[in-house]
Amino acid sequence: MASIRDVALKAGVGIGTVSRALNGTGYIAEETKKKILDAVKELEYVPNELAQNLYRKRSGFVGVMVPDLEHPFFAGLTKHIEIELYKHGYKCMICGVDKKFLKQEEYLEMLQRNVMDGLISCVDMAVDTDISNIRRPIVCMDRSWGPDVANIHSDHRQGGRMAAEVLLKGDCRKVVQFMPMPYDNWFFLERHKAFRERMEEEGHKVLEVYTPRDRMIFEYSEWVRRECVRFIEYADGIFADDIAAITCLKVAGEYQIDVPGRLKIVGYDGIPLTRMLHPTIATICQNLPEIAKRCVNTIMQEIEGAKQIELDQIVKISFQEGGTV
User: What is the DSSP string of 79-121?
Assistant: First the structure.
């Protein structure tokens, strides 16, 4: 393989001149630049990416911390983040933390040691974690890591009210919603609050079933199934995340309950699986491409040293028509 020294000898210039020409730093006469580029082409020289990043004091990687890579929502989000990072010349380092907060600490240490140029976090901050000494960019999606950390999230309040309106239009009165236990750092809990408020405005009580944290997707689905069996004969409306909504639809089929005649179901997230079932799940869709774009654009601004960053960014949601309402 040709080296930068070979290119310099071929073009009749110094190594520093070749470096400036290829990195776009400093003035290079057009004639000299042409000689260098001709030499690069003739010798089939490929720049050393690692060396270039060391020169720029960057790694070329951005970490993405997710709680569960099996979950279709986070799998889709990670895909779109990787696409957006690639547009900026960066590579995606996927950091799955699931239940292991020790792994989160290790990833933060990697960020501090410049192994990554920035971190996009889709997980809760571990207890007793201090990020005040980390001088590298961090952006959060749907979680709060402090007032100075930028956060991108969907308009969950609008999503919750939209789901309530759909069930109210279907004349649902005995409504159940699956939701996590309240936690201050979760922006997405706003959808459940807004849903309850809208139903109560019309005089309807909502039965809230608190879902477990930190369960893998199949374990979670089985848990939802057991709970759903308890009230499937009572409810005429269900609001839940897409995985729980799909599970409830399955239970309704097992108990020969007509959906959407006897029972109406509205999901939340808009994962592709909802469109692969019969009937299609009616669901509130989060705009994953836009969320990913906002996350990446914000982390890029921080990496480039922007002084003013929009700390709270809200992305619009939409409704997917389906055969469950």
Answer: HHHHHHHHHTT-EEEEEE-TT-HHHHHHHHHHHHTTSSSEEEE
Copy the structure tokens of residue 287. 């705009």
Cβ neighbours for 81, distance < 8 A, ≥ 6 positions apart: 64, 92, 120, 292, 295, 296
Residue 184's pLDDT is: 58
Q: Is 218 exposed, middle or buried (0-12, 13-18, 19+ CB in 10 A)?
A: exposed
Give residue 107's identity as a one-letter amino acid code: Y
* Residue whose pair of structure tokens reads 């969320």 in the numeric block: 291
Encode 174-230 in three state secondary structure.
CEEEEEECCCCCEHHHHHHHHHHHHHHHCCCCEEEEEECCCCCHHHHHHHHHHHHHH
Query: What pLDDT is recorded for position 225?
Result: 94
Q: Which residues contact 96 (CB under 8 A, 6 or more apart)?
A: 65, 66, 67, 68, 69, 103
One-character DSSP codes across 148-177: TSEEEEE-HHHHHHHHHHHHHHTT--SEEE
Amino acid code (one letter) for 322:
G
Could you tell me the strand order of the sheet in which 317-320 lies? 206-211, 175-180, 237-239, 264-269, 282-286, 317-320
Q: Quote the pLDDT of residue 214.
A: 66
pLDDT given for residue 248 in this prediction: 96
Q: Give the pLDDT of residue 181.
A: 81
- pLDDT for position 99: 63
pTM of the model: 0.82
| Closest to 85 in 3D by CA, of 137, 131, 47 | 137
pLDDT at 120: 96
Q: Which of 273, 274, 256 is nearest to 325 (CA)?
A: 274
What DSSP string describes 309-321? ---EEEE-EEEE-
DSSP letter for 143, please: B
The C-alpha atoms of residue 167 and residue 162 are separated, in whole angstroms, by 9
**Residues of the chain under the 50 pLDDT cut:** none
> Residue with structure tokens 């580029």?
37
